[in-house]
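Batch manifest line 493
LIGAND: NDP
JOB: complex structure
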Amino acid sequence: MTTSNYIGGKAGVGQGPEVNVVDPSNGKVIRTYRSDDGQSVEAALDAAHDAFPEWSRATPAERSGILHRLAAELEAVAEDLAQAETAQTGKPIRLSREFDVPGSIDNVAFFAGAARRLDGQAAAEYSADHTSVIRRQAIGVVGSIAPWNYPLQMAVWKVLPAVAAGNTVVLKPAEITPLTTLMLAEACERAGLPAGVVNIVNGPGPSTGESLVSSRRIAMTSFTGSTAVGRHIAGLAAANGTRLHLELGGKAPFVVYDDADLEAAVRGAVAAALINTGQDCTAATRAYVHRSLFDDFVGGVANLMRRVRLGVPTDPETDQGPLVSFRQRDRVAAMVDRAVRDGARAVTGGRAPGGALAEGAYYEPTLLVNADQRSEIVQEETFGPVLVALPFDSDSEALQLANDVPFGLAASAWTRDVYRAQEAARSIEAGTVWINDHIPIISEMPHGGMKSSGYGKDMSTYSFEEYTQVKHVMSDLTGRAAKSWHTTIYGDI
Ligand code: NDP
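JOB STATUS: finished
ARTIFACT:
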């Protein structure tokens, strides 16, 4: 029977209902597994608790060595990972090979190094009679939930900072995309990660996911996914007083000033809107374009979008594959239909393609104009290959519109003027602001949101703020039974 969980260093099979993993480019089942029957979470928490004392006391060098081996193990199966990622998500193989897999491996390598730089603060005498030391310690067992859009990368973002800092993890991937997360667990075993440090359970969010994040046996919840589920999970964490890290939805603005390099902005907008078929929380979704450039920008984007090659994800020539599922495709299509009904116009796209692609969850690259700033298509996460373009007349209006949504994950400003760029970087409410680009990420720099996009950081050493706790140790220096401050309590008795 197909492996469906990985607990205490062993591959296992759930006893719950059968789940089909579907290739969204043709609707065919590529794997069937039995999901969690309600037992896996407790078993995984047992394993994670058993592993914690030894792993949290391993030296940084020991943890680092194992994580470096993990990077090498993943490198050795990079092509298998890319094929599996593409099969279960429908993303073009070029993206899997050039972005998802190497980005994940680089993140593992980064945290292998960072594991040795987890310093507390040096000792000092802040009180004349005491030496103070700051210890930075692991928290305990972390319950993590990952989404389906970048299954391997999201699993790595959740697991690596946690285990590099000495925590142990129980991770639940999205039910529809479990394959590369299980491959990551196998690579952990080959790398020599002690049993129980990383555990994977597969099952539906509302049952398996919820029993994990509502457990009193986890010290922290780390969640990436939709804002609605994130808010629900925040309630569960609050009831237990559990530490929480939330990476939620986005609705990134893409601001094009009148002095922008138009060709760069057009190319940048199409790439940033269509990456991963738009199923990217930082994807460009709202292009605010100075009115003097608006028609040229719309024409350029529409032309380029029409040239994007939709096709079979395994073909290296394919630019855009299907969405992750028919459910997600239908959700995006319904949102675009509502926008058009409410007055928006599709300059290009706005429909699922016909012909051979009709059997997959495809949707054409879509550019909308005439949408209202207050409308659903401008305010809510779409998570599909859809860009809305809106004109603006002044810099202050552009920044006001850019901030006029509940989300605050990412944004970009396109200008040749350094003062405008700096003002945009300062004013836009987003965890990342790019200048004259949109999308690139790097392991050394943090990723995370503001407002309804959540809080806490993935990647970079900033993520250690989430996955460690700071302890103050204060040691008496005098050796005296009667401390000087005792007189405040009982005079000179
Ligand atoms: P969800 O937020 O529902 O799913 C994300 C993860 O949470 C999955 O592993 C899911 O499990 C799990 N989950 C769902 N419900 C619960 C629950 N009650 N308790 C614990 N875990 C739960 O996203 P969807 O997959 O439904 O997608 C809906 C929308 O969310 C997308 O269209 C997009 O707008 C947004 N989204 C944003 C992402 C981001 O990176 N910001 C990523 C994914 C989605 P399972 O799927 O197995 O049920």
